[in-house]
Write a structure and sequence with these properties.
Length: 251
């Protein structure tokens, strides 16, 4: 649906740092001052897994600095709040970011907020340095043991607003061992689309198998009792790079 000026409602009027973007490898600039990203998650901060009608997310207790990231391009430490995924109806597409215009079948987002500077996540969402999201590409390949724990929970949250308790989970198992990443200043990729995200996109994908991707695709956008709509293609279209440089932590 386009508005009078032909823009789609999913563009922020006046937006200059929207996400996702295509990462053109050869245009990224190596920054030797980028530090390694330090990730310290406490698996017992895991609370529940739920279907929010757009994706499925695993939420964490972010009332203290127990699951945090620090370093990389970040000035402060950021607290883990939730992680979720974006995926396609088929393996040819599904990720939000692309690398040299290549889509991956899915993309993981680990969402953190700057609790050093802002009192709540809601306030951090509105600020340029409020959020830090780690993006991890999923590619078709070997079975992923750590992901299987999430996949086993999906039938119980098939419908929008379904939630189940999820006691212990360490999301570090979903992050590739290779330290290399790209980073750029961007936005949320779903409403409110605010330009508050320092994106940290891992260069190395994780491998998952076909059954695991199919499990994502059996989730529903719709609530129990409504006409079923499969939860697929929940990724935002690519946004213009405009006046931004993507930096790499590697040469
Ligand atoms: N998809 S995304 O950019 O990682 C992302 C992360 C956290 C978010 O919170 C949101 N509303 O409160 N949208 C949203 C998108
Ligand atoms: Zn996301």
């Amino acid at each position: 649906m386009a508005s009078a000026d032909g823009s789609s409602p999913l563009t922020i009027p006046g937006g200059t740092r929207q996400s996702p973007i295509n990462i053109q490898w050869r245009d990224s600039v190596y920054d030797p001052f980028l530090k390694p990203l330090k990730i310290s998650y406490d698996p017992t901060t895991c609370l529940h897994i739920w279907n929010n009608g757009y994706s499925f997310l695993v939420e964490f207790d972010d009332s203290a600095d127990r699951s945090i990231i620090v370093g990389g391009p970040l000035e402060n430490q950021y607290r883990l709040k939730q992680f979720h995924f974006h995926w396609g109806a088929i393996n040819e597409w599904g990720s939000e970011h692309t690398v040299d215009s290549k889509f991956y079948p899915a993309e993981l987002h680990l969402v953190h907020w700057n609790a050093v500077v802002y009192p709540t996540f809601e306030e951090a969402v509105m600020e340029g340095n409020g959020l830090a999201v780690i993006g991890v590409f999923l590619k078709l390949g070997a079975h992923h043991e750590g992901l299987q724990m999430l996949v086993d929970a999906l039938p119980a949250i098939k419908h929008k607003d379904a939630v189940i308790e999820f006691d212990v989970f360490d999301p570090s198992c979903l992050i590739p061992s290779c330290p290399d990443y790209w980073t750029y200043a961007g936005s949320l990729t779903t409403p409110p689309l605010t330009e508050s995200v320092t994106w940290i996109i891992k260069k190395q994908p994780i491998e998952v198998d076909e059954n695991q991707l199919e499990a994502f695709r059996m989730l529903l956008f719709t609530s129990d009792g409504e006409e079923e709509k499969r939860m697929v293609d929940n990724f935002r279209p690519l946004q213009p790079l405009m006046n931004r440089t993507v930096r790499s932590s590697f040469q």
